[in-house]
Every structure is written in structure tokens, then in C-alpha cells.
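Fold this: Glycine cleavage system transcriptional activator
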Amino acid sequence: MKRDCPTIQELLAFDAVLRYQSVTQAAQALCITASAVSKQLAGLEAFVGVPLLQKSGRGLTPTREGLAYWHPVADGLRRIETATFALRSGQAGSGVLTLASVPTFLTTWLVPRLLDLRRQHPGITLSFVRHLSAGESLAPGVDAAIRYGTGDWPGVVSDYIAGHEFVLVASPGLLAASPIHEPGQLAGHTLLHHEEAEGAWRRWATQHGASHLPLLSGPRFAQYSALIQAACSGLGAALVPRVLVEDDLARGALCMPCGGPVAIDQGHYLCYAPERIEQPVFRTFREWILAAAHV
């Protein structure tokens, strides 16, 4: 019985063009010629009977029907890839996972722990793509995202990993020049802010009886990596998630001059569609990362 579906080559070409929004780049990713990609796209559109792509400048974008079709296609291709990987490796819970992650958490927390993941679960392969912007949803083909925020993104399950505990940090050089032995002495220093943690300084100051500080002044940063580097360089004092500066504190690049940690209602979360938990390889990864966060 003939199956009423396109060929795998046509679907792979369609998925690649949507991901790269370019026939040329899709061809390079698939290791075929651009004309071969165009032929596969033409065959797919002829099969489904509706236009799936439209020209946009020098590239291609999906039509409304094309975008709706791409979501299940991309997810199906990812499931085929994962099932094939698991079958070839001969290990249960094996496969490829595609993750989007905020960059600072990825480089300072997750990457140093990937060796442990490989030791415990050698059949899991991770593929990382760019992190999601504030209002962006999980893209087709992305299994999960590690996001920073309050954990209330619509349409996904959000499991807290780490990051609620914020600490005051500054560089040894800054503290040698102008010590901070008690919270009130911050009045003579530049306060460094993360633009998505606007209430952090206010909560810390309230907890430590220093509400008189100029809490709204000072540079703002979109990435914690830049904020932490600014603190390491002596630009000012910063409030940051402790989980992101543990190595800097251990090697002496940063110090905690005064005051205790403060709990902020923001952190790093593993976000995924509810049905993703049914995928054995993802379930294994989820259990590992949540356990690693509580060691």
C-alpha cells in the first residue's frame, strides 16, 4: 500500500530551508546542490498542492500554510533522528537533544558538568542552538530551552534549576581601593544592574537596612556574562545569581564583601512542551540536570 506522504528527502530539504531561510545554506547543510534542494521543494509543493514558501528579499520565508506544516514536520524529523540514534547505539534512553540556553548559564554552569552527563549517560548527545529572546516560543526541532525569568512562560512546563540566590560581589582591586565592610558603604560605589532583575538591588537593600542607597543609578547589562566581567574588572559592585559566580569566587576573581544572600523570584528554568516528557532521552536528561542542580 502506497503511503500518502512526501519523501524524506523532500521533508529534509523543506526543514533545512525553513531553518536557514536560504536555499544555498540549506544545500550546504544537506551536502547537496542548491538546484537539488529547489527540486525537492518543488516536488513537495506539488505533492501537498499548496505553496509552502515565498520569496522575501534574497531569501525564503514560509507561507502561513508552510509555517503550520513545518512545526509537525520538524518535530517528526527530530523523533526519527532520535529513534535512529538510540537504535544504532543499542542503549535505552539514548538519542540527540537540541537545547536552547541562555549563554552565561550554558558556559559557566552547564558546560562544566557535561563530562558528568557523558559519564552517566554516554548515549545522550546534546546539540545547542541560540537562546530564546524574551517573547519567543520553542522553535520546531528544539526539545527544550534553559531560560532566565520567573518561570511562567505560556504553553510549557518550567522546572526550576538554579539561580534564586543572589549575592553581592566586587573585585579585590575595587575593595582594596575602597572597602565595603557594611551595606551603607555602597553609597560611594557604582551599582551594576541586570536589566531583567530590576528588583534585586531593592530587595537586597531592604533586607540589609540600606534602602537609602541610590538603587536606580549605574550601568545596566542584558547578559550576566557582561555584568560579571564588569564586576571582575572593578567597574562596580554587582548583585548576581550565586550559581553564576561560584568559580570566580573560588579563584579569587570576585569577593563577597558584606551582607548575606537574598532570594529573588527569578532563576534558570528548563522549559519544554508537556508531551516531551514522554521521550525517554529527554526524560533521562531532565532527571540528570535537576539532580546536578541539587548536589
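The mean pLDDT is 89. The chain has three domains: 8-87, 97-163+267-292, 165-263.
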